[in-house]
Specification:
With 196 residues, this protein is an alpha+beta fold. 52% of the residues lie in helices and 9% in strands. The chain has 9 helices and 4 strands. A 4-stranded mixed sheet has the order 2-1-3-4, covered by helices on one side. β1, α1 and β2 form a beta-alpha-beta unit. α4 runs antiparallel to α6. The two termini are 31 Å apart. The mean pLDDT is 94.
Length: 196
């Protein structure tokens, strides 16, 4: 019998990324919905995530926070789901999974907050500038069904979630390449189950 898997979430958070990932795994898990505010600041939850943020998972004795880390962990913990390429083929998988978690997240967040880094700041910021991030992401998905090879992976869950969310709320501009890439992801039964 496998270790129990618990998903800590709030529907109005980045937890949707992990929810999709869990559905792709097709393994049993329980869900604990936490309200923003007091629920996330209880001693019990702060023992799970000292930041008092969701999503988080507990898999037996293993606790993982941060959506990209959770996706990578789950892909490795449940290899039978086939959501991580073989280790020798993980270059693009790691690259784009963590590109979305770092530069894409930073660039879109700063832009949404009305912050445009100066040329001097761009040198020290990991993402440089919004325009460069967008152009790199366009090249990553252009004419590709999947971002890290010829099979769907956890990187598609993570990158696809950011693109879908960002285009819906205006933090990422709509580009034909983004829309085409996301259209194929929309057909995934696991995604349809979490977005209904």
């Amino acid at each position: 019998m496998s270790a129990p898997l618990v998903f800590y979430t709030n529907p109005l958070s980045r937890s949707g990324i992990v929810h999709w990932m869990l559905e792709e795994l097709a393994v049993p898990y329980t869900t604990e919905v936490l309200e923003f505010g007091a629920d996330l600041k209880t001693p019990e939850y702060l023992a799970i995530n000292p930041m008092g943020k969701v999503p988080a998972i507990r898999h037996g004795d293993v606790v993982v926070t941060e959506a990209a880390a959770i996706c990578a962990y789950l892909a490795d913990a449940f290899p039978e789901a086939g959501l991580a390429p073989p280790l020798s083929e993980r270059g693009d998988y790691y690259r784009w999974l963590f590109f979305a978690a770092g530069p894409v997240e930073m660039a879109s967040s700063l832009r949404s907050a009305g912050v445009e880094p100066t040329a001097e700041q761009q040198v020290s910021f990991g993402h440089g500038c919004y325009e460069h991030v967008i152009e790199a992401l366009v090249l990553a998905v252009k004419d590709k069904r999947y971002i890290a090879g010829d099979r769907f992976s956890a990187a598609d869950v993570y990158v696809g979630s950011h693109l879908r969310w960002g285009m819906s709320f205006g933090s990422l501009e709509k580009r034909p390449e983004f829309e085409t890439y996301c259209q194929s992801l929309e057909q995934r039964p696991a995604l349809q189950r979490v977005t209904v």
